[in-house]
Write a structure and sequence with these properties.
Layout lengths: L1 E6 L6 H10 L5 E6 H4 L9 H4 L8 H12 L3 E7 L7 H8 L3 H4 L7 E8 L4 H15 L3 E8 L4 H21 L7 H13 L7 H9 L15 H18 L1
Parallel strand pairs: 1-2, 1-3, 3-4, 4-5
Helix pairs in contact: 1-8, 9-11
Length: about 240
């Protein structure tokens, strides 16, 4: 298995110690991306990635190599400390540069492990935010390790080991989990936008060129009859609304 670690902490302390412990439970090849060293300029909100295509981002040469590494990985580990009740600025800046993935999700076969540390509070909220972001990217399933460091070390250690092992088993199984209903809603919303009278060209090209317009969700992801019906109904409704 190939794992990509995206470290959103500017230093190697509590968050990185948690990552290292989780990694010790995994088998495979590891590649590390330390966002502090990547020197990605701040997203300037130009909307080029959404409106014209991600290759038009002025920082494409900094961001795309990381995206390519995600594409070639089996599992993603994303780590961040809690800063001011949110992810670190390093990770937020990277996420801002991936806004186009909300419109054009692609990582339907990927599994992720989310590692969040805090000296106070907010770890669950931050882990939830990262999880929501990854689901917009299309990521199939995420496992969360949100920990307030300085608590009961033995319990923290057991939690890290337990979640990491579940993540490992899931990555190695290659099983694809059924999406949540909210994920189906967003998938069909963006798909329907590709059919509007004046669509965003980058979106339309992506949905049609990949063939995703022919799917109720990501290729290879099975939906039961209720979710399949729900997905088709959502698409029908969105098409009618946007017509």
């Amino acid at each position: 298995m190939k794992y990509l670690i995206i470290n959103g902490s500017p230093r190697k302390k509590n968050t990185w110690k948690m990552v290292e412990q989780a990694r010790s439970k995994l088998d495979g090849e590891f590649e590390e991306i330390h966002l502090m060293k990547e020197k990605i300029p701040m997203c300037n909100g130009c909307f080029n990635c959404i409106m014209e295509g991600e290759e038009k981002c002025p920082h494409f040469d900094k961001v795309n190599p990381i995206i390519e590494k995600i594409r070639s990985s089996d599992g993603i580990i994303i780590a961040s400390p809690v800063y001011a009740m949110n992810v670190s600025a390093l990770l937020k800046n990277f996420i801002d540069h991936t806004a186009y993935l909300y419109h054009r999700p692609e990582f339907f076969t990927k599994k992720a492990l989310i590692v969040v540390s805090t000296a106070g509070a907010g770890q669950k909220k931050v882990a939830k935010y990262i999880d929501e972001t990854l689901r917009h990217w299309g990521v199939n399933k995420s496992y969360k390790i949100p920990i307030a460091c300085g608590g009961k070390d033995e319990l923290e250690s057991k939690k890290i080991d337990s979640v990491a092992l579940k993540f490992k088993e899931d990555v190695e199984s290659k099983k694809l989990h059924s999406p949540k209903f909210i994920d189906l809603l967003y998938f069909n919303l963006w798909k329907a936008l590709a059919f509007t009278k004046d669509p965003i060209k980058a979106d339309k090209d992506y949905w049609f060129n990949t063939g995703l317009v022919n799917y109720d969700y990501g290729p290879g992801v099975d939906l039961n009859i209720f979710k399949k019906t729900f997905s088709k109904l959502l698409f029908f409704i969105f098409r009618r609304i946007m017509k």
